[in-house]
Amino acid sequence: MARFASRKTRQHAVLSEDVERELTREVLRTELLRVRALIITGCVMILFLTSTFLIDPALVNRVWRGTEGLVREYILLGGFILFEAWVHSQIRRNLKLDRDLPVIRRYIGAFIETSLPTIILILQIRSMGAGPALGFVLPLVYFIFVILSTLRLDFWLSTFTGFVAAAQLLAVALYYNSVNDAGEPLAYFHAVRSTVILICGVLAGAVGAQLRRQFAASIAAATARDRVTNLFGQHVSPQVVERLMATGTSASGDVRRVAVMFVDFRGFTAGAQSRTPQEVVDRLDGAFAVLVDILDRQGGIVNKFLGDGFLALFGAPLEASDAAHRAVAAGREMLSAMDHINAETSWPLRIGIGIHFGEVVAGNIGSPRRKEYTVIGDTVNFASRLEALNKEFGSQLLISESVREALGEDASDAVPLGEVEVRGYEQKVAVFQLG
After folding, report:
1. CB-based burial of residue 110 (10 Å sphere; 0-12 exposed, 13-18 middle, 19+ buried)?
2. Where are the strands (E) in 189-295, listed by range?
3. Helices 187-232 and 155-176: crossing angle, nearest 10°?
4. pLDDT tens by residue, 364-423
5. Among candidates 415, 388, 394, which has minimal Cα distance to 404?
6. How many CA atoms within 13 Å lie on the side-chain side of 146?
7. What is the C-alpha separation between 435 and 433, in angstroms, rounded?
């Protein structure tokens, strides 16, 4: 029991590490979006300043007292864009290295970014006066940084951004504009405005935190699904895994027309007697790897391994209108592949293949506690009996009459072996051999 608990703990730890790693990458991706948005914002502001200078030079004189003040803002915005471009490169670098940014660097970056409107605001106050500058558009720029801080997906970073914006705006306003022209104090007005900015920072942080939780939940679900698929896929075919994940284990069986293939290694037991168990497993795994790869290319799946053989399906769980053609093509390729393998090994293996085409019931079958995706019906039984006939005829690939009919002209090389008695069947059936 303790070993089981520790195994579950280790699996949970591995899953948590995978989730945390992918979440970190997702946060870095959203950081890239935020940085790109800031770079675009800086470029738009430069374009706006240039347009203002070209369209209304008089406004430039009123706001910046000539081009000298405008040039200073160009320099500040250009430096800001270069800084953000550097931040962008660092984030991309960390993404490639699959590691997170240091926390302290995030806070320093947030402070530098949020201080840009403050510096420009001070320059405007000096050029156009405190009242007009504080009543101009620039204090609204703080909201851009606060809103984009949501993409940091960090409550405290967004709150910190709102706090820096609110504190700097309040400090500048109180220092340069503590009273109005009538001598009335403006501390209350400035404090309320800064409080609104701070509240926006907190709200942005709350939204970012909620988005982070949703990202984490989605990534955890996807990671768990991928992990189950990978582990389950080592025991059954990936197509079966996808079907089970999509329909659930309670899905009832449905009738399909499929091509059923049985493959068995001839003389394998005798050859295994003179070899170590590890040699037997290695030889079997090597042969299975080649044959299963052929099945994958032809659109078939291994439904189950049967000792030194397996049952393969074409047309289930994924439908295929040319299931018989795919099965025969796979069988031919398997024979050719085994000939190539046998020429390079000291333990040659001979395979027998039987293919039948017909209706089966395909679905999740078993007890309420444990189900298995499989196919049931006479088509399966006959394919098994057909493969066994290879011993009698000394052949390697036998097909039924239904397969030959489905192949049409592609079965021109099928050699009829006549009406054959098949164990378990009262009437004789037609059997055909393919080379």
Report:
1. buried
2. 254-266
3. 160
4. 777 767 667 778 889 999 999 999 999 888 899 999 999 999 998 888 888 999 888 888
5. 415
6. 23
7. 7
